[in-house]
C-alpha cells in the first residue's frame, strides 16, 4: 500500500516544486554536457588522426629531397673516388716492380748510420796502483735490425780522459797519434765488438800539443769513447 505524499494530503509548498524543477534542470544540463563531451571526444580523435596523417605525408615529402641530396653526394663521392683511383693507377703499376721490403733489406749493404750503434766504455780495472798503466775497452753494438758496415776512416774511434773533480780534459789517444783502427767494421744485427787500448802512459796531452806532457796525477777520472760524432756515457776509474 502506497504511502501518502504527506501526512495531511495537502499541496506541498511552492519552494519544494521550485527545487524539484531546478534539480531536474540541472540534471538535464549535466546530461547535455556529457553528450557534448562524448561527441567532441569522438570528433576530436578523428581530427587528430587526420592531422597526424597530414603531418606524416608532409614529413615524407620533406624527407624526399634530403634523400636525393644524399644520393647526389654519394654519386659525387663515387666519382671523386674513381677519378682518384684512375689517376693513381699508373703510379701504382709503376711501383709494382719495386717491393718495399726488398728496398728495406737492401740497406744492410750500405754504410751504417753511426746513430744506430751503441757505445759503451770501461776501464780494465777500477783502480790502478802507482806505475800501473790503465787499459781501456770500447764496446760497439749494432742496435739496428739489419747488418751494416761502419767506416772507421770517416768515423774515427778514440778515447778521452777527464779529471772527475775539475772536469778538465787531460788526455786523448788521437792528440798525438793517428787512430789505431781504420778498417771497416762489419756488424750483424745485434752484434757487438770490443776494441781495446792498452797502456795509457798516465800523462796529459792536448790536440797537437805532445811536448812536455805532464803526469796526470792521482784521483778519480772519467773515460769517454768516441766513434765519429757519437759519444759514449762515461766510465770511472781511479789512479793511485
From TrEMBL:
Organism field: Corynebacterium variabile
Biased composition regions of type Low complexity, renumbered to the chain: 49-92
Annotated region described as Disordered, given as residue ranges: 45-116
Keywords attached to this entry: Membrane, Transmembrane, Transmembrane helix
Name this polypeptide is given: Uncharacterized protein
Transmembrane segments: 21-42
Domain of life assignment: Bacteria
Amino acid at each position: 500500500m502506497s504511502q501518502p505524499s504527506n501526512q495531511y494530503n495537502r499541496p506541498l509548498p511552492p519552494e519544494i516544486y521550485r527545487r524539484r524543477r531546478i534539480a531536474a534542470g540541472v540534471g538535464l544540463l549535466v546530461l547535455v554536457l556529457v553528450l557534448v563531451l562524448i561527441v567532441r571526444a569522438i570528433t576530436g580523435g578523428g581530427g587528430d588522426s587526420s592531422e597526424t596523417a597530414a603531418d606524416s605525408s608532409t614529413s615524407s615529402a620533406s624527407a624526399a629531397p634530403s634523400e636525393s641530396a644524399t644520393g647526389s653526394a654519394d654519386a659525387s663521392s663515387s666519382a671523386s673516388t674513381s677519378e682518384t683511383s684512375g689517376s693513381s693507377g699508373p703510379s701504382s703499376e709503376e711501383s709494382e716492380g719495386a717491393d718495399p721490403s726488398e728496398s728495406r733489406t737492401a740497406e744492410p749493404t750500405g754504410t751504417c748510420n753511426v746513430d744506430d750503434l751503441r757505445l759503451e766504455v770501461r776501464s780494465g780495472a777500477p783502480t790502478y796502483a802507482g806505475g800501473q798503466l790503465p787499459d781501456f775497452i770500447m764496446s760497439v753494438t749494432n742496435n739496428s735490425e739489419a747488418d751494416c758496415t761502419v767506416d772507421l776512416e770517416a768515423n774515427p774511434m778514440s778515447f778521452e780522459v777527464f779529471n772527475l773533480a775539475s772536469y778538465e780534459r787531460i788526455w786523448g789517444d788521437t792528440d798525438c797519434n793517428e787512430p789505431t783502427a781504420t778498417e771497416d767494421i762489419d756488424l750483424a744485427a745485434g752484434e757487438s765488438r770490443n776494441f781495446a787500448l792498452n797502456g795509457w802512459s798516465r800523462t796529459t796531452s792536448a790536440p797537437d800539443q805532445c811536448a812536455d806532457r805532464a803526469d796526470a796525477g792521482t784521483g778519480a777520472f772519467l773515460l769517454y769513447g768516441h766513434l765519429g760524432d757519437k759519444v759514449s756515457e762515461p766510465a770511472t776509474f781511479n789512479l793511485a
